Amino acid sequence: MLDIASAIPVLETERLVLRGPKPADFEPIATFFADEERAWGFGGAIDRPEAWRWFASMIGHWALRGYGFWVITDKADGTPLGITGLWEPEGWPEPKLGWGVFEGAEGRGIAYEAAMAARAHAYDTLGLPALSSNIFPGNGRSIALAERMGPRFEREYDNVKHGRELVYRHPRPEAA
What we know:
This is GNAT family N-acetyltransferase. InterPro entries: Acyl_CoA_acyltransferase, GNAT_dom, N-acetyltransferase. It holds the Pfam family Acetyltransf_3. The longest helix is centred in the N-terminal third of the chain and has 18 residues, at 48-65. α1 (26-34) packs across α3 (48-65). The chain starts with 10 loop residues before the first strand and ends in a 7-residue tail after the last strand. The protein is globular and about 40 Å long. The protein has a 5-stranded antiparallel sheet with strand order 1-2-3-4-5, with helices on both faces. The mean pLDDT is 90. The chain has one domain (4-175): Gcn5-related N-acetyltransferase (GNAT) (Aminopeptidase, 3-Layer(aba) Sandwich). The protein contains 5 helices and 8 strands, in the order ββαααβββαβαββ. The chain is α+β, with helices and mostly antiparallel strands.
């Protein structure tokens, strides 16, 4: 089996390690995507076979674009806490910074800490010229997190897969 996770950069923060997906991460990711409340911001709940396809696409995105979603883990014990990263499938105008935390990881600043590390990597290491977060209207928690990170609402966008989304533009480091 190809170990693509070892080729994905590892990012560390004060409390977290962001690393490439591993086979054992499928269970918490499938659980996340089976939960309508959590998966809503990713387009809604999906079954295990569709979660497997999403999981595989997480890995493939790294091979195709050189960036993608990391699994957020607790630095102390390695427990998977969520996902964050950069996503730019066919038909999207630019890379998107996204996040989602697993049950029990909410309200602790995990998504903020992880997404800030992913954004810094996008700008400082990858040199991406622009970055946005596309958020479904009504997703108050993600809108609040985006605004806490510094982006501001820029416009509405008709996503080729999900329909209307709100685009929040992330400031470049020198502008923040």
